[in-house]
Amino acid sequence: MKSRNEFADGRARIFNSALQSIKLPQVTSEKEIFLAETS
């Protein structure tokens, strides 16, 4: 049951991040800017 939930969680996370990158291309650029500022 636990591993099944973790598997579904991982799939949902991947799906949500994929949707966000498709819907909001500026999110990835903001992430890159943030990474550049922190490094």
TrEMBL record:
<protein>
    <submittedName>
        <fullName>Uncharacterized protein</fullName>
    </submittedName>
</protein>
